[in-house]
Design brief:
The chain is mainly alpha-helical. 81% of the residues lie in helices and 0% in strands. The chain is built from nine helices and no strands. It is elongated, with a radius of gyration of 20 Å. 36% of the residues are buried.
């Protein structure tokens, strides 16, 4: 990797517009190319996580400065999806070991899950606009629940990185376990919201938007679980 960076240096500005780790010359060295692909996909996942945190900040705190950041990252994430997929398809045409050949479709699935993270973050902009247009707001209890869910999701992402960056399979297992925990949390928060609706603590329109936000965050967690479930095949090829 250090040699590649000396040959093809990247500036911070360029990092927003081009792939850093994937270089066409590496296609003749499939193992190195796949190791670099995992790094690029990890970067893509982190972009999605950052957008989701900004999306939560938008809903919870009304920070409209998050909107352009989310939209800008969505463009980058979409380009990363396209370019990483094209690179992997080109790599699949090379002479590969069986494990390497199996890893490519798994990584393409991971790329697609990573791309969806940005979509769910972008959906929060629409939810925020609905709140603003309707002059609606969430209750303090609902806001606290969103904050708690955001924290648990970040814990799930951190566990996933233990596998993708440190090559520790236990991280993937923790991410999957946290996904099950998130489903239980969302089930409880949904029941709490229904109770708030029954008691008139919140309006029906705001209540529906809150439930939509929970649904988006649950699907985010599902995407992280999908990625974690492919961790074992990643580690059969990409090793410390």
């Amino acid at each position: 990797e250090k040699i590649c960076m000396l040959i093809i240096p990247r500036t911070e500005k360029e990092r927003e517009t081009v792939l850093e780790y994937l270089e066409p010359k590496l296609l003749n060295s499939p193992l190195i190319a796949l190791e670099q692909a995992v790094k690029e996909v990890t970067y893509m996942i982190k972009k999605g996580q950052n957008s989701l945190n900004d999306a939560c900040d938008l809903i919870i705190n009304g920070n409209e400065g998050s909107i352009p950041k989310i939209l800008e990252r969505e463009d980058i994430i979409d380009r990363l999806q396209r370019e990483i997929t094209e690179y992997l398809v080109e790599l699949s045409r090379r002479d590969l070991e069986l494990a390497e050949a199996k890893l490519i479709p798994a990584l393409i699935h991971v790329v697609n899950d990573a791309e969806r993270l940005g979509d769910h973050a972008e959906a929060f902009i629409e939810l925020y606009n609905l709140l603003r247009q309707g002059e609606l707001s969430f209750t303090n209890s609902a806001l606290s629940e969103l904050k708690e869910l955001q924290q648990v999701l970040n814990t799930q992402f951190s566990a996933l990185y233990e596998t993708l960056e440190k090559h520790d399979l236990e991280g993937a297992k923790k991410a999957i376990h946290t996904g099950r925990r998130i489903k239980e949390i969302i089930k409880q928060f949904t029941e709490n919201q229904v109770h708030r609706l029954d008691t008139g603590e919140c309006s029906v329109k705001a209540g529906v938007i809150f439930l939509d936000a929970l649904a988006h965050l649950e699907r985010v967690s599902d995407h992280v679980v999908n990625i974690a479930e492919r961790a074992e095949i990643i580690l059969t090829v990409v090793k410390p």
